């Protein structure tokens, strides 16, 4: 069965590139461009992997994570936090919120896709 | 009292006078061995005995036991206690001797230590500023995002073998667009650092004078007071003479007390500028001018007609009105036909950059095309501030049939609320504000037909 990735990102080119890469890797991709949008999407059924940008309109990625983890549906979703905010305190905050993998921009395509594959596989297993 | 300073100083002075311990001891009526103990800081000394020794050494007591030395001693003690210097084996106990024998070296060490502390404090401030500067944080974030897109696209083009032509073209377009945006953001960042590297303190005498006037908000009550009671000067020449005579000492005091005039050139420039300001005040004393301005609803042409003052002087004096409830505040700018700024009096929200080319959409420029007529303009600046500009070009230089006509434009700037308190507020509510800039390099209006330079920081907001 095709794994679903929810891509929470508001940069059009990044969205386009990741859709291309994830599509080639066999994932079905849904896109959300705002923080609140990610949370309401969860109600429709959690994705296999969430790729979450930090700087999202409406609600930043950390707040999305906090709410996600306190919700029974979102608590178990594997999350790749993808961000240009790579400072130590951001990593620590992500760790506290049980982010599975923290990847900073600029990222390597191969590393990102392999990470998503690994997380999706773990979920499926 | 720090006895270690006193002992060392006594010995130093004694030696410089060519006296033995026995000689000095005899003169002050103590034993040589006791003096030896004093000089080696083994015995404290104060009161009459210290006074006797000072007298014998032809010094004042304070020269043997000075507060400056005590402070210096404390500073050197701090240096000696600095944990970073712990491995140097500093002879902390010899600080007194050092000050006594080599006071210059003592002061040098203390001065270097103080300077080091100040630099460290500055570095902390700058580092704090860098860490918390929202512009920098935002810009770095944007750069990293652009770089992420570029890297990802480049990897796709490089590593994906079966990419079709249309898709490849699309990725090339992304690459090109992202690279362009990245260089714009990087350029703006470089511009920001250029600006940040400029010291806060004024670097030229002109800057120092400008800052001084801005801090005073272009009002000098002390000068007005010095001129109070003098009959209004009828001509510019008489006004300058009155200004010098009546307000010269006040001006000198203002300059002396100002912190920014470190050079003779800055002081002389400041004096000229203040005298010119005082000459305006001498021609249009504030009390009568304030009443006249209000009576004519701040209509510059009617004030000029009623008082016989030139329009430029009327505008400048409007900027000097004492702030009062209900009384409008005026910003002012004067420029020649080439757009060079001759006078600039900023108010909140209206702060043109003196060294830059001004926006050609301002009434300031348009007034040159229709001289001797006041032109009103409601503008919205890129900052969101809305102002009413009132500009009028006046002829300067020699008059006469064959003489060339040159014009200087005076322009007042006032907020919409303030404009409503003047003749220039009439009918404004029905008009749409014209979107203007300040200067191209700082203007984000990308589609402006009048742009002559690329914006420096604006693309950051737009990127």
Explain what this protein looks like in three dimensions.
The complex is a heterodimer of chains A (125) and B (463). Helix content of chain A is 45%, strand content 19%. With 125 residues, chain A is α/β, with parallel strands linked by helices. The longest helix of chain A is centred in the C-terminal third of the chain and has 16 residues, at 109-124. Chain A is globular. Residues 457-463 of chain B have low confidence and may be disordered. Among the domains of chain B are: 3-121, lambda repressor-like DNA-binding domains (434 Repressor (Amino-terminal Domain), Orthogonal Bundle); 134-197; 323-463, no CATH class. Chain B has helices at 3-16, 21-28, 32-39, 47-56, 61-64, 67-81, 95-101, 103-132, 134-159, 165-197, 205-215, 221-227, 236-257, 264-283, 286-295, 300-307, 311-318, 363-366, 416-419, 458-462; strands at residues 331-336, 341-345, 375-380, 386-396, 406-415, 434-435. Chain B is flat, with a radius of gyration of 34 Å. A six-stranded mixed beta sheet of chain B has the order 2-1-5-4-3-6. The longest helix of chain B has 33 residues, at 165-197. The interface between A and B is medium-sized, with 20 and 20 residues.
| Approximate shape of chain A | globular
Provide the spatial order of strands within the biggest beta sheet of chain B.
2-1-5-4-3-6
What is the succession of H and E elements of chain B? HHHHHHHHHHHHHHHHHEEHEEEHEH
Taken as a percent bin, the fraction of beta residues of chain B is 5-15%
Q: Specify the CATH architecture of chain A.
A: 3-Layer(aba) Sandwich
Query: Could you say which structural class the secondary elements and strand pairing of chain A correspond to?
Result: alpha/beta
Radius of gyration of chain B: 34 Å
CATH class of chain A: Alpha Beta
Cα Rg of chain A: 13 Å
For the report, how would you describe the main beta sheet of chain B? Answer: 6 strands, mixed
H/I helix tally of chain A = 5
User: Uncertain regions of chain B: pLDDT < 50 for 5+ in a row?
Assistant: 457-463
Any low-confidence stretches of chain A, pLDDT <50, length ≥5? none
- N/C terminus separation of chain B: 66 Å
By CATH, the superfamily of chain A comes out as Response regulator
What is the straight-line distance between the termini of chain A? 12 Å
- Quote the average pLDDT of chain B: 85
Pfam families (chain A): Response_reg
Domain Response regulatory (chain A): 4-120
Keywords (chain A): Phosphoprotein
Modified residues (4-aspartylphosphate) (chain A): 53
């Amino acid at each position: 069965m095709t794994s679903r990735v929810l891509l929470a990102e508001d940069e059009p080119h990044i969205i386009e590139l990741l859709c291309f890469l994830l599509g080639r890797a066999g994932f079905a991709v849904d896109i959300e461009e705002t923080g609140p949008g990610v949370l309401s999407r969860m109600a429709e059924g959690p994705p296999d992997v969430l790729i979450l940008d930090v700087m999202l309109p409406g609600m930043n990625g950390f707040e999305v994570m906090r709410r996600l983890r306190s919700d029974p549906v979102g608590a178990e979703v594997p999350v790749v936090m993808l961000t240009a905010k790579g400072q130590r305190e951001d990593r620590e905050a992500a760790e506290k919120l049980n982010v599975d993998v923290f990847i900073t921009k600029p990222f390597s395509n191969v590393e990102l896709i392999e990470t998503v594959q690994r997380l999706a596989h773990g979920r499926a297993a | 009292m720090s006895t270690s300073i006193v002992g060392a100083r006594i010995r130093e002075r004694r030696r410089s006078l060519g006296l033995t311990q026995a000689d000095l001891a005899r003169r002050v009526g103590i034993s040589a061995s006791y003096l030896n103990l004093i000089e080696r800081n083994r015995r404290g000394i104060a009161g009459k005995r210290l006074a006797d020794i000072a007298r014998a050494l032809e010094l004042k007591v304070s020269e043997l036991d000075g507060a400056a030395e005590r402070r210096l001693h404390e500073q050197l003690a701090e240096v000696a206690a600095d944990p970073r210097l712990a491995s140097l084996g500093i002879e902390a106990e010899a600080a007194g001797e050092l000050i006594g024998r080599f006071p210059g070296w003592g002061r040098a060490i203390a001065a270097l230590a103080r300077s080091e502390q100040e630099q460290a404090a500055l570095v902390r401030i700058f580092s704090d500023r860098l860490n918390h500067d929202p512009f920098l944080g935002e810009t770095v974030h944007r750069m990293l995002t652009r770089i992420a897109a570029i890297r990802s696209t480049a990897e796709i083009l490089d590593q994906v073998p079966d990419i079709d032509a249309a898709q490849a073209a699309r990725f090339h377009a992304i690459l090109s667009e992202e690279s362009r945006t990245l260089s714009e953001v990087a350029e703006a960042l470089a511009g920001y650092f250029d600006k940040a590297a400029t010291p806060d303190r004024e670097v030229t005498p002109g800057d120092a004078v400008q800052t001084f006037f801005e801090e005073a908000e272009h009002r000098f009550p002390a000068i007005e007071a010095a001129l109070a009671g003098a009959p209004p000067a009828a001509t510019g020449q008489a006004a300058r003479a009155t200004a010098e005579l009546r307000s010269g000492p006040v001006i000198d005091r203002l300059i002396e007390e100002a912190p920014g005039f470190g050079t003779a050139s800055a002081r002389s420039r400041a004096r000229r500028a203040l005298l010119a300001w005082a000459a305006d005040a001498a021609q249009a004393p504030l009390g009568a001018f304030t009443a006249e301005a209000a009576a004519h609803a701040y209509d510059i042409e009617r004030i000029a007609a009623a008082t016989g003052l030139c329009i430029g002087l009327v505008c400048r004096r409007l900027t000097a009105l004492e702030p009062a409830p209900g009384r409008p505040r005026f910003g002012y700018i004067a420029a020649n036909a080439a757009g060079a700024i001759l006078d600039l009096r900023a108010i909140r929200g209206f702060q043109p950059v003196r060294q830059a080319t001004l926006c050609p959409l301002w009434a300031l420029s348009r007034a040159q095309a229709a001289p001797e007529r006041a032109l009103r303009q409601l503008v919205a600046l890129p900052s969101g501030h809305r102002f009413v500009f009132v500009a009028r070009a006046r002829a300067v230089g020699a008059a006469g049939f064959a003489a060339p006509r040159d014009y200087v434009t005076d322009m007042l700037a006032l907020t919409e609320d303030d404009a409503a308190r003047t003749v220039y507020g009439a009918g404004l509510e029905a008009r749409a504000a014209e979107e203007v800039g300040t200067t191209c390099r700082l203007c984000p209006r990308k589609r402006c037909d009048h742009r002559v330079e690329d914006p420096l920081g604006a693309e950051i907001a737009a990127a």
